[in-house]
Amino acid sequence: MDILNLIFVIASIGLGGFGWLAPKYTMETLNLSGHTDTMGMSEISASAGALFIGMGVGAFILNTPAGFAMIGFCWLGAALGRLTSLIRDGQTRKKWGFFVVEAAVSIPAIIYNL
Question: Model-level pTM greater than 0.85?
Fold first, then answer.
């Protein structure tokens, strides 16, 4: 495994760790702190947390270009969802920041590994 793919893995696991282990913090960061039911925290733990950890760990274990490219495709899906929200729901600086991070992980991971 080379350094660039290790960065993709660490980014996925690291950012996923916040969603998984600190769902309240993640919800505050995403302006979702008004939602107090446990289902909301469960969803953040799963979809914004452990899913990204599983993706990073899986790519690390597989240690193949296809595994590392899959990190890129998953982050590209997140970027697509964010872009959709920017167009449909309105633009904010925070949304653009998240989009830039998602694109900055997804595009290089795909190009580098295909």
Answer: yes
